[in-house]
Amino acid sequence: MRKNYIYAIFVFLLAFTSFGQKVTLTPTTVNGQSVSGGPINLGGTPNSTVGLGVTVEMPTIPGNSGTITIHSINGLNDNIVSGGNGGALFFGEGKSASRSFVVNLLWSSFATSGSYIYAEYKTSGSVVYKSTYLAVTKNATQGGGTAQPPADAPDPSKIPNTLCCNQTVRLGDKPAPITGSQYLDPYKGQQWAVGSSWEVSGNPTVSILNLDDVNKVLTLDYVEQPGNFTVVRSLGSTSQLNKPYKSNAATITVVPSPILTNEISIDAPVNSNGFVEIINTNDPKRINGTRYTSLVNLTILQDPFHTSQRGDSFTNIERFEWEYTKTNSVLGGTKNWVPINGENNYFLESFNPSDISTTEDNHYLLRRIAIYQNIKRVSNTLKLVLRTIRNNNTICCDQTLIISASNTIDTPSLIVGSDATPEAGYLKYQWQSQSIDYNNGGKISPWSNIAGATSKDYLPPALQLVSNDRRGETTWTTPVTYNYRRVTEPQYYNGKYSYSNEINLSGLSYKNTPTIKVYPNPATSIINIENTSTRSYNGNTLSNSIIT
């Protein structure tokens, strides 16, 4: 009998703890109209604003780590509604807590009948308690209903909208941030939020670096070209493409810089997108910059509208800074400029950022900042695309063709390519070349496809010999030499191209032939060192020897 008594007490306590909790969901408004109960009728309104009240009662103090959400049910679909994620529910030291919601219900998300919403409370131990279902109905067709804003929704036409401040900036320097007046936006992220847009006009080269929408601060980049400009902020509803309520115009006046020039360049051609191509297996490409012409005119420092002339006082730049940002082939995305630490010289020996991807092409913008005291001037911007070897796509090797004493030149050897590994499916080979014209100052041409060169290997044509008569002596040279590379073209939609290392084909007179040759290029685990001529040492002869 005692055992039955104890069991009965246990069942009673279990029943009390299982049924002592309660979640109540009550509608308060639908599209601005007060309601006291369900069902919620959306009518024909495309996007309805619904006010809800939720009360959660628990048999014991649950703590403040549980969460409260509003869900919709349409058939088998159960989703948290827009505005229905309430986060943690605060009980304090009590056993009950309340929360108000303003949610958005789309007409298209519900059926004419059989749809519901409910409130869900989940404890910190992931135990879930739900309210009873509240029915949602709508008209059979959309239209005929107009969504009404909540009574406390801000009216953009009545929000004070001012910007600060007008300023003067030197060409190449960065304007001070533009600050807008603050305003409350309790429905941010919802239908009734305040929409804003910022417009910079008058100087098309000025770009926006960042918009802090919390503090209403606009940060602009360096001013690259002359020309005054203005900044205006417009307010309106989020549904308005052109916001009608405009601020005052903050005017930025651009004056000449005492830093006379700041230009950077690279001795390489650009591709069809305007980028210089760099592969990590070949010699790094040096970034050059103006040095002796990057002077500071101290007279212009005192009078920005003075014209530089003889007799003015000049001094040198104090230091340079370099910075880069990652981008893509069409210059899309946000520009996050990163300083290159420790680089304060007027040139860069190489550009090797730490965030290079080995699985795709890396597009960068690079620039230099010239600094004197608290004045800066930005340089032009270089566009660079950096690549690594992918898909096992390599070729071998550099070739130096010897011009003999009889004025003939060696025949090129076959350029051997590896068996590239496609990422998926099949790939196609395409060989490319670029010329280096020493009759034109060593000008390098852009890369171009070699017609019909689509095999794994490629045999280049012979170099052209040209005679030169100087001081009665005729010499033969190859004024135009070539670089070669192999591209793998994917044979599926949106596949990635890969680019091999680059090899060089050049000519050299037998008179200037080096006695030591190291190969291959790129290097493997075995490097060959070859003596290319015959030498005698203490009566012994060493001829064409190879050490590996």
Draw up the topology in text.
Layout: H1 2-19, E1 22-30, E2 33-34, E3 40-41, E4 47-57, E5 67-74, E6 77-88, E7 96-106, E8 115-122, E9 128-130, E10 134-137, E11 163-164, E12 167-170, E13 178-180, E14 194-201, E15 208-212, E16 217-220, E17 229-237, E18 245-246, E19 250-255, E20 264-266, E21 276-279, E22 287-289, E23 295-297, H2 298-302, E24 314-316, E25 319-327, E26 338-339, E27 362-372, E28 375-378, E29 382-387, E30 395-396, E31 399-403, E32 416-417, E33 427-437, E34 443-444, E35 448-449, E36 466-470, E37 473-477, E38 480-490, E39 498-499, E40 503-509, E41 516-519, E42 528-531, E43 534-537, E44 540-543, E45 546-547
Parallel strand pairs: 3-10, 12-19, 21-29, 31-40
Antiparallel strand pairs: 1-2, 1-4, 4-7, 5-6, 5-8, 8-9, 8-10, 11-13, 13-16, 14-17, 15-16, 17-18, 17-19, 20-22, 23-24, 25-26, 25-27, 27-28, 27-29, 30-32, 33-34, 33-35, 33-38, 36-37, 38-39, 38-40, 41-42, 42-45, 43-44
Structure description:
- This protein is mostly beta strands and 548 residues long.
- The protein folds into four domains: 5-137, Immunoglobulin-like (Sandwich), CATH 2.60.40; 163-255, Sandwich (Immunoglobulin-like), CATH 2.60.40; 264-387, Immunoglobulin-like, CATH 2.60.40; 395-531, no CATH class.
- Helix content is 4%, strand content 43%.
- The chain has two helices and 45 strands.
- Mean pLDDT is 87; it is low at 1-18 and 534-548.
